[in-house]
Amino acid sequence: MNVVDRFLQYVKFDTQSDELTNLTPSTPGQMIFAQHLEKELRELGLSDISLDENGYLMATLPANTDKADIPTVGFIAHLDTSPDMSGRHVSPRIVQNYDGSDITLNAEKQIVLSPSEFPELNHYVGQDLIVTDGNTLLGADDKAGIAEIITAIDYLRQHPEIKHGDIRIAFNPDEEIGKGAHKFDVERFGADWAYTMDGGEIGELEYENFNAAVARVTFTGRNVHPGYAKHKMINSLRIATQFAIMLPRWETPEHTEGYEGFYHLVSIEGTVEKTVLTYIIRDHDRDRFERRKKEFEHLTRKINHEFPGVAELEINDQYYNMREKIEPVKHIIDIAIKAMEDAGVTPKVVPIRGGTDGAQLSFKGLPCPNIFAGGLNFHGRYEFVPVQSMEKATDVIVQIARIVAEK
To answer: Active site includes 257?
Structure first.
């Protein structure tokens, strides 16, 4: 089975995660998918296969050489798809030899994937694109990564002339809700380092990500009949909006790129009596990240000075920039770059404007940069993945295994 066949099979599984269940995995579909993959890995003859009660699936392709001291390298991808859009009844199709024109995803609903709105399509003229039917996301994030890892392992198994050390693979639940690494047993995994196959377009190699926190500001008001409210009513909704406009207008996701951080208001829930603003805070630089959190503390004090006791702030860190953990073992980046070059791919070392399981795993003792899986426009109906990008990602995994053994 090739990487495309596997991918088209995998996207049929509904594995959308759900942050409200407080379960691991957060949805039953992820465990069903993990059980399917477990069976496939057994059929491939892998060893040390384990699937725990939390949906973490691990396995080993044993070394095929007696050469001593070859490091154990790992490859990781996540089982779940984003809660942002339905992953149920995914109906993919392949646009052969894409000609650069608009792609009609759903004629009835007039949903069109157009290079005028998604200019990255122009990079893939002449290639074969897997797209959605406009009703769901596709699931290339990260079922493309899973398909690439298993296909590469199968290729290595069938080509013993390519020497490699022990290779560990793992598929984990709930990455999309930030919990993918929470119950990942690094010691049991037993790799010297690993790569998540969870990046975007071809060539991407990432070992820097945002420092991240979530902030919730709760405003407690007092409701009085509006006809008799003078000097009595405390409208938490109005005070909350006052707080929101005190943050820098241009430091939001829609106005930032590259290494620029931001404040992002993700939800407002409120009445006159009580309003809660939920933000995510992001910055690649740790000092700026800490200053952003201090700004929330400052603005909360300012609101409480005008309206005593109204505002209460809660900030929780989510993850940190993995760069500080990767730089001491920078050779693992050099290996990935060499593997891409040997596979005919031009490396693009870029910062992640988000998070990754690899960041949390790096802080748990498993250095884990991120390699492209090939997909674009994740988390929505316009998601697509070029077939040729998945094939190249598969080859990169093979090349990494080879290079690690040779070195």
So the answer is: no
